[in-house]
Amino acid sequence: NAGVTQTPKFQVLKTGQSMTLQCAQDMNHNSMYWYRQDPGMGLRLIYYSASEGTTDKGEVPNGYNVSRLNKREFSLRLESAAPSQTSVYFCASSEVDGGRGYTFGSGTRLTVV
Amino acid sequence: GENVEQHPSTLSVQEGDSAVIKCTYSDSASNYFPWYKQELGKRPQLIIDIRSNVGEKKDQRIAVTLNKTAKHFSLHITETQPEDSAVYFCAASPSSVSGGSNYKLTFGKGTLLTVNP
Fold first, then answer.
1. Given A28, A48, A67, A109, which is the most exposed site by the fewest CB atoms within 10 A?
2. Among residues B62, B71, B78, which one has the least CA distance to residue B33?
């Protein structure tokens, strides 16, 4: 039982390059989320998927796209990376009703130069 | 949307003392309030949560209180230990589209707690 698995753990991109962050959960959770964490800013929601087949924008969606591939997988894509997207990205999953809060992945540290 | 304010941003205590972190929220529809602990370089982990039908909840040295009228909730850690040193985040969540909670959390900016031996 791995919980939430994120890949890669580290990545360095050049401005303008694209990449996809992968996230998979094995807890049969309905909801999945992508957050970014910046110093002094807490965790800010980029996109979320309340259930398979749906996605919605969060607080800071500009420059990102997402795909809920199936119930297990939720990917985050940066089409044209910018230095402002340098951050630590966390994927999380949860049950919508009740449950025990979010389960977070181990994070992806992304640097855009 | 929801806005969560967290104070203080840093807190330093002596081992054995108590620590209190306070949060306020803006959306009266919020009904789920978890607290997360994040050690350096690690993922956030849930330590305790409270729902709006409860005023206080305890788990060993940790307790959370909720005042829905004033829209604030607090984390209390008693008999602090060096291993309690971490960043703590509060969060709030409204009801989901299906009427449940634990959905689309809005986080505070975090409190860096340092417990000095």
1. A28
2. B71
